[in-house]
Amino acid sequence: MPRSTPRGAALPQIRPTRFWEGVLDVVSVIAVVSAVGRAEPVPPGALAALGVAAVGLVLRRRQPALALVLVTAASAVGGFGWPEATWATLALWVMAQTCLFSVALRSDRRVAAGAACALAVTLVGQSVLAQSNSVVDLLTFALLTWTAAVLGAGLAVRAQRDHVAALEAARRAEARDREREVGRRLTQERLRIARDLHDAVAHTVAVIAIHAGAAERNLRSSPDDAAASLGAIRTAARTVVGEMQQVLTVLREEGGTGADTTVPGMAAVPDLVRSVRASGVRVSYAEQVGPGDLPQAVDVTVYRVLQEALTNAVRYGDGSVDVSVSQDVTLLSVRVTNGRGHAGPGAADPGSGSTGFGLVGMQERVSAAGGRLRVEDTPHSFEVVVDLPTESTRQTA
């Protein structure tokens, strides 16, 4: 696996393979021109071998193996058939080595190694058999070294090219992963903002709506009751404005984590229950929570769950709701049960999924705290049950 480069670091700069192949093309052309342009004429057979080799040289980028076979065959025919045409033989050897370089660049490494061995045997055979050189001659050593160097250069350029390509692929993958992570965090932040705004507004607006209806009914018949309802509306409005300011403050904090550091917890539940009772709903509240502080995530989640469940009870219930909060060694359980009422024509059902995002946000909060949410929906009642792990559970997990 390629080692990834540091973020922002430039990738290694290498010359493209077409540059090196272009250089070898120029060398091959120079070798052919030198062979043909000499004073002594080149035999027609050697010229034909050079022509076949030139065709292979053209094919080497698309079919390097076939090109090497053609050039090697032409080299063998020219070298054995007209050994006196030394410069033509040398040009054929140069073109054969050029094709070997392309094979090393584009073919399997084992194929390239086998092709290099075959070419080396062919060239040494021409030197020994056609030109009567010794097997241990310096030319034999030079041909073997030349072939090995061309093979090694081709494989090295290929390895460097593959390494840079792998680094580029890894960088692109890293960039995609970063984009996905940013998108995921933005989505989580958007959902958190939506939950906070919903929690801050929905409950208080429901209470305001009930008190506004009571004030309207009692405006002429019972001005004192109407004034009390208007006072409750004012108090509720101040509460929701305060919570919205807390949410906006967290959003404006530079480098803030967005945590619910300003959201009320269990300590604010009695005030929440009193506000619901003030709207005319009968609330039975029982709390059995041991001493000691709860984890912040659990503390906030309990308050938000009760706030949403009581809001649903105010809007859709029959005017009474039972709330219980209990804690044992491992879990803190919240249970809110209300009877079904008639919220008016067109009112949504709290359990139907059409009321908006209250239950969705509740599920997200409970899951984030490591708990479980159950909703019991019957024709006569609606019940929300939440189980949240305590600190001891998390430590032993």
TrEMBL record:
Q: Which residues cross the membrane?
A: 20-36, 42-59, 66-82, 88-105, 112-132, 138-157
Q: Which GO terms describe its molecular function?
A: ATP binding; phosphorelay sensor kinase activity; protein dimerization activity
Record domain Histidine kinase/HSP90-like ATPase: where = 297-392
Q: What is the catalytic activity of this protein?
A: ATP + protein L-histidine = ADP + protein N-phospho-L-histidine
Which top EC class applies here?
A: transferase
Q: Which SMART domains is this protein grouped with?
A: HATPase_c
- This protein's name: histidine kinase
Which organism's genome codes for this protein? Sanguibacter biliveldensis
